[in-house]
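[09:14] KT: can someone run the structure on this one? pasting the chain below
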Amino acid sequence: MRVFIAVEIPERIRSEIESAVKVCHKNVKPVPKSNIHITMEFLGELDQSGLQRVISMLEDVKFEPFSVSLGKAGTFGKSARVAFVHVETGADKLKTLQSYIHNELSKIMKLEEREYTPHSSIARGGPKELEALTAEMNSIWHGSDAFAVDSLVLKESTLGGPHAEHRTIFEKRLGSGSA
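[09:31] RB: done, structure tokens below
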């Protein structure tokens, strides 16, 4: 199964993002509200044994809850195919938590090495359309209120249909010590 580790974004904030993207819809494919989250680590395809190793690692995570807020929309460069909202406050804590998770997972599986940029994907499309979307969105979306990061979720992502379907497999509540 195809899986990733994420931080959930509260329903109210996901609804605000969805509404802003719909208002600014510039021939892009919005990420469904139910799929808006902050990815911590994409793991790809795992068998049952690999899944159990990841769950065991997550059970041992010791990190205190903290708050984040989402900021302006953007893309990862001129040829980007994804628009996102970046994490405005709490990004350093998310980076620390992601680094911890990445290091622990690296002990049990091979992972892609790349710099982590805390964000939440909001739409897919062509570069020009995404540039127009983010410019207009930033005129109406001024970020979110702070919200608690008090758990990590392991999600299955099933491809097919108009968009991926995400299902929570495991949730780890934070607060069992500190990192």
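[09:33] KT: thanks! The radius of gyration is 16 Å.
[09:34] RB: yep, looked fine to me
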